[in-house]
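User: tokens in, sequence out, please.
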């Protein structure tokens, strides 16, 4: 469950299969590191985060690109979970979103595993004690476009542009209207650190 120490929303990212919360000073749960700018930062890592989804919006960072900002609200306030726009984490979450009861809490738990030299990333969403399934899946795509295999400079790569556009449109037309006036408030701010976008976290979820 998200703990809020002040009235403003707190910001969360996902790093190596865990939820990362930046804290202003050392705590009994935090880890210390020096970032690329030579600044010492303190971060707490959690297996998951609990709250009711009250906002979801796309934000574009001038240096790092597009992100999903998902506002999770509990009795203590708001937390904004940031996921890279086309990451395995975001794609898995959005595929489950139509199956979420937006009036009740969810628990979002990221997962990462390494297969060979690649990181495979996803999230699990639990609600009412049950792990939710993807609304969009291979057996029942429900209109979700497939990934496209392209050849760029002689190298094959996967293009998820159509899928990402479909999922963003789904959120804007089917989910956001159900969230009411809070849908775009606490999620409007994008706070991101290059250190919190680890290489591999944007792998496509095959």
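Assistant: Sequence out:
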């Amino acid at each position: 469950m998200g703990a809020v120490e002040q009235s403003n929303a707190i910001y969360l990212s996902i790093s190596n299969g865990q939820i990362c919360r930046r804290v202003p000073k050392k705590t009994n749960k935090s880890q210390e590191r020096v970032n690329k700018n030579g600044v010492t930062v303190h971060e707490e890592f959690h297996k998951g985060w609990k709250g009711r989804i009250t906002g979801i919006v796309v934000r574009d960072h001038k240096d790092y690109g597009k992100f999903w900002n998902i506002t999770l609200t509990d009795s203590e306030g708001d937390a904004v979970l940031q996921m890279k726009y086309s990451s395995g984490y975001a794609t898995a979450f959005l595929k489950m979103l139509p199956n979420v009861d937006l009036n009740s809490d969810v628990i979002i738990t990221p997962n990462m595993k390494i297969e060979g030299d690649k990181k495979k990333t996803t999230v699990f969403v639990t609600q009412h004690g049950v792990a939710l399934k993807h609304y969009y899946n291979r057996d029942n795509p429900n209109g979700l476009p497939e990934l496209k295999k392209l050849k760029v400079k002689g190298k094959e790569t996967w293009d998820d542009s159509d899928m990402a556009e479909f999922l963003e449109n789904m959120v804007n037309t089917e989910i956001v209207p159900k969230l009411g006036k809070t849908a775009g408030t606490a999620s409007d701010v994008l706070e991101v650190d290059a250190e919190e976008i680890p290489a591999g976290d944007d792998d496509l979820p095959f």
